[in-house]
């Protein structure tokens, strides 16, 4: 009996030993984004029936509904999707239930992979799934589970490439079932608990901090007008207002183009070591543009606002450097980035909670220390005019950075007189080495 009965593979794909696990599927020549790689076939089985199949083919099928898999029944007929392995940074995804397509260009010799999060869904009919992942990609989550589809950044990254039943679950639509319709409400609290660590707590905006500030900043920062009047969830879905010179979200002055010389210096610092550079907060894309001018391998961007992230993703398709936009708060998206993996970080966000007010960078320091490789560089919008205040140094050292590894450059800037958030003619660009 021929395997052809169960699947059809693109003629420029071949089976060989996988770098991930067992057998894998490899491109014998370059295949462009959107190429149909594999048409998946098999028997329709329930999850319970699948659990009764020979052990070596229990992972050889693909889940196509809450309680259904498309699977071979014997190991002789295994192949197709069974020889396409999981990777947390995949090059393929689903188009409908039975098409596997390239979600980016695949180079000659490259192994085809998809993320199990795209098809694996928790079900009352099956035991919870949890498998240690050794894919080795920069984005490796360490574990694959049947709740990974609920991670917001993955939902954003793989939108359009999930199995349709999972896409329906994500969008809170009814899933197609062989039986009465079922409405699944993904619970946000539960989604959070499925992640590997809770969102971090922020230090309070305390009087010790306010005391350190120059007078003009003290006055500005103690002003009542600046209380936070929105939630992070509202920030995510708000419509950004872009003008030629600035960006406002929910009426807040998020970014202005007089910061360009400062952004250039921050980008130079973050990219000094090359390699993998993470930028948090895309805003007007000014620092992103400077980062792309450097010799780096990867540009990762985390952006909380959905519309700004969409703009960043569109821009990323024009970039020559491999660029990946992760949509969500850094507190969520950072969970996808392994420790000790980054060569540089540029952090430039905006306070979204009372605790972040005037010190949104402080809460990030311990995470920067964890994610940077030894020797990696952290820089960020400092909110300091010339040099680090005492409290600032304290927060950096508390996060693990050595006091000797804290340096900076004073950058000349020309904010317009009516700028609502900066009055000084200089601003500090931190150079913090792990
Ligand atoms: C000051 S702008 C960044 C400016 C950018 N460096 C540039 O050159 O245009 C801040 C950006 O951070 C985003 N942001 C705010 N809080 C965030 C968070 N917790 N996680 C991720 N992005 C966030 C905002 O939506 C906004 O787009």
Give a description of the structure:
This protein is α+β, with helices and mostly antiparallel strands. It has two domains: 3-193, Beta-clip-like (Beta Complex); 207-433, Rossmann fold, CATH 3.40.50. 21% of the residues lie in helices and 24% in strands. The strands form seven sheets. It has a seven-stranded mixed sheet with strand order 19-18-17-20-21-23-22. A four-stranded antiparallel sheet has the order 1-4-10-9, with no helix packed on it. β14 and β15 form a beta hairpin. The longest helix has 11 residues, at 260-270. S-adenosylmethionine is lined by residues 249, 254-255, 263, 280-287, 302-305, 308, 329-330, 348-350, 352. The site of S-adenosylmethionine has 23 residues, from β16, α9 and β18.
Task: Summarize the entry for a quick read.
By secondary structure, the chain is an alpha+beta fold. Helix content is 21%, strand content 24%. Helix 8 packs across helix 9.
Main sheet: strand order? 19-18-17-20-21-23-22
Beta content comes to: 15-25%
Largest sheet: 7 strands, mixed
- Total count of domains: 2
- CATH arch. level architecture of the largest domain: 3-Layer(aba) Sandwich
CATH class of the largest domain: Alpha Beta
Mean pLDDT: 84
User: Which class best fits the helix and strand makeup?
Assistant: alpha+beta
**Helix content estimate:** 10-25%
Fold-level CATH name of the largest domain = Rossmann fold
- Report the span from N to C terminus: 59 Å
The small-molecule ligands in this entry are:
S-adenosylmethionine
Radius of gyration: 24 Å
Shape by Cα distribution: elongated
The beta-strand count equals: 23
